[in-house]
Design goal:
With 609 residues, the protein is of the alpha/beta class. It folds into 3 domains: 2-243, Glutamine Phosphoribosylpyrophosphate, subunit 1, domain 1; 246-439, Glucose-6-phosphate isomerase like protein, domain 1 (Rossmann fold), CATH 3.40.50.10490; 449-599, Rossmann fold. Helices cover 34% and strands 23% of the residues. It has 19 helices and 26 strands. Helix 16 (452-460) packs across helix 19. 5-amino-5-deoxy-1-O-phosphono-D-mannitol binds at residues 302-305, 349-351, 354, 357, 400-402, 489, 602, 605-606.
């Protein structure tokens, strides 16, 4: 969603700020803006549209050559996509600007109060309230004014503040929305995402909720909003530049699809002890015992991560034999959920910042559950809120349409399930056998990726069709949902995913001549049932594209197109069956001329409810 970059140091800040914003473009936004102090005077520019347009504007206006500045990409929440609503938001009394990620919940009451005090608002945003409030409380000390303002604010924020009256100072603060301070050699880069920092320094610290950091050329000083001193821990960022660059690929999504074998190897590395027949999960630490005693496991997430969570549920019941359920985090958090003793709640998230998933986790902890996380971004809010967890280790995911994080999530959940199964009922021998199947997955994915050109050709035959169905059963019902979501997100084709058996209960009415129906029909317990469903679609004129197991010649007689995947045991099959679906979505979007990495209306991580 929104992105923040700030710089204070000895170099001209414009290119650092703009490059930083470009690194954050993948998160999704609709307008951008930048403010800089040049000889102690504020210069500000904002524009609707891409960062490149803001860059043009800076060039036209000229004079943006200061060494301290802040900038922002905005994804509209309060107020439309206009220049006036774009950040930074300015207060003229003290020449103060604020960029903000998050939502101020009590902004309406604060706005009324500030208007009564004579402040004139020029935007419809909640952010402008913060700049006015800081200004109202300013008595010659920006850090103190920010602390005082944040004591009045409810909601979520990451902010970066700059003021003409203290031209050598940036003040940043966080509650709920991520913010990092990169510490370089005599310079500081502040950003909401490590991707904007890594080109300048690999040393950084993440602000904790309610932290306020004052940064000047002579160093930084961290407190909480009550001015109690806090000592942040500087550590090494866990990404490198190559991981966030396109390289030879035309889109990040394609790069990440092709990175999946490597991503899975990293996800499993050092965790599968096939000699001893056990899974080694350092992130579970001392919580292994409590986890093993679980009477119920609740998986919670949103979007693609929820589809992975659903597969986790199948896995835990089938392999670890623990009663399990899944829930949209957004529903769980407001549902007054019953959390009995020995309940484990597992939050699944790539970014670790999804607002609903984070809130569901807080709710679960509040009600006494053991809170586990299956998260990609190290040190993210969800990772920090959980009692224990498993990192995906698939590297930064830049493509808005999640691909490698999905297989990483399914793989990490399988490791977690196996960890539990081994402690509850599985023999070392069976565990070793299972893990050997897991270790074979990356190579099997490589053979599917080798068919990319053929998958492209198949997809292009159907791209004129506006409605698609994705059908699967058991472990591959969530995969069908994921296939439909991928296609919708980037090609804007309407697609529905569902359990294959559900089709007869209504959606079958949609089937007309040529409707593409993608069946996940790999060999497994319900193969025969899926075959019957295929025939039901065929006999009504639908065009069946099947994802089937290598060597299955029989299925060719009933389908228009078959994409083969290597044989695999059923609980692990989603990590293979999803690959052709990701490629189909990608090629459909490209064929339709869409910007795959910047799909309309979407943000990479949804940090608002
Ligand atoms: O960062 P998270 O995994 O928590 O994100 C959850 C969803 O917002 C995310 O998976 C979304 O559905 C993606 N756009 C899917 O491609």
């Amino acid at each position: 969603m929104c992105g923040i970059v700030g710089y204070l140091g000895h170099r001209k800040s414009k290119s650092i700020l703009i490059e930083g914003l470009k690194r954050l473009e993948y998160r999704g936004y609709d307008s951008a803006g930048l403010a800089m102090l040049v000889n102690g005077k504020l210069k500000l520019a904002r524009s609707v549209g891409r960062v490149a347009m803001l860059e043009e504007r800076l060039e036209q206006e000229g004079g943006f050559d200061g060494t301290i500045g802040v900038c922002h990409t905005r994804w509209a929440t309060h107020g439309g996509v206009t220049e006036l609503n774009a950040h930074p938001h300015k207060d003229d009394r003290h020449g103060l600007v604020v960029v903000h990620n998050g939502i101020i919940e009590n902004y309406a009451a604060l706005k009324t109060y500030l208007q009564e005090k004579g402040h004139v608002f020029t935007s419809e945003t909640d952010t402008e309230v913060i700049s006015m409030l800081i200004s109202e409380l300013y008595e010659g000390d920006l850090e103190k004014a920010v602390q005082a303002a944040l004591r009045e604010v409810t909601g979520a924020y990451a902010i970066c503040v700059m003021c003409e009256k203290e031209p050598d100072t940036l003040v940043v603060a966080r509650k709920g929305s991520p913010l990092l301070v990169g510490v370089g050699n005599g310079e500081y880069v502040v950003a909401s995402d490590a991707a904007a920092i890594i080109a300048h320094t690999s040393q950084a610290f993440m602000l904790d909720d309610y932290n306020v950091v004052k940064i000047t050329p002579s160093g930084f000083h961290t407190t909480d909003i009550h001015n109690t001193v806090v000592t942040p821990k500087i550590s090494q960022l866990e990404i490198d530049l190559e991981q966030i660059e396109l390289g030879e690929y035309s889109h990040f999504m394609l790069k990440e699809i092709f990175e999946q074998p490597k991503a899975l190897r990293a996800c499993m590395s050092g965790r599968l002890d096939t000699r001893e027949g056990r899974v080694v999960l350092g992130g579970i630490g001392s919580f292994g015992k409590e986890m093993t005693k679980a009477k119920r496991v609740v998986f919670t997430a949103q979007g693609t991560a929820l589809h992975a969570a659903m597969i986790g549920r199948y896995f835990f019941e089938d392999v670890a034999k623990v009663p399990s359920t899944w829930e949209y985090a957004s529903e769980f958090r407001y549902r007054n959920p019953i959390v009995e003793e020995n309940t484990v709640v597992v939050a699944v998230s790539q970014s670790g910042e999804t607002a609903d998933t984070l809130a569901a986790l807080h709710e679960a902890k509040e009600r006494g559950a053991l809170a586990l996380g299956v998260v990609n971004v190290v040190g993210s809010s969800i990772a920090r809120t959980t009692d224990a967890g498993v990192y995906l280790r698939v590297g930064p995911e830049i493509g808005v349409a999640s691909t490698k994080a999905f297989v990483g999530q399914v793989c990490a959940l399988a490791q977690l399930g196996l960890f539990m199964a081994r402690r509850r009922l599985m023999s070392a021998y069976d565990c070793t056998k299972f893990m050997q199947h897991m270790e074979a997955l990356p190579e099997k994915i490589e053979t599917i990726l080798g068919q990319a050109d053929r998958i492209k050709k198949i997809t292009e035959r159907y791209i004129e069709r506006e409605n698609w169905l994705f059908l699967g059963r058991g472990y591959n019902y969530p995969t069908a949902l994921e296939g439909a979501l991928k296609l919708k997100e980037i090609s804007y084709i309407h697609a529905e995913g569902m359990p294959a058996a559900e089709m007869k209960h209504g959606p079958i009415a949609l089937i007309n001549e040529g409707l593409p129906a993608v069946f996940i029909a790999n060999r497994g317990k319900q193969y025969e049932k899926v075959m019957s469903n295929i025939q039901e679609v065929r006999s009504r004129g639908g065009h069946v594209i099947a994802v089937a197991t290598e060597g299955d010649q029989h299925i060719k007689n009933y389908c228009h197109d078959v994409i083969y995947i290597p044989d695999v045991i059923e609980p692990l099959s989603p990590m293979l069956t999803v690959i052709p679906l990701q490629l189909m979505a990608y090629y459909a979007a490209v064929a339709r001329g869409h910007d795959v990495d910047k799909p309309r209306n979407l943000a990479k991580s949804v940090t608002v409810e």
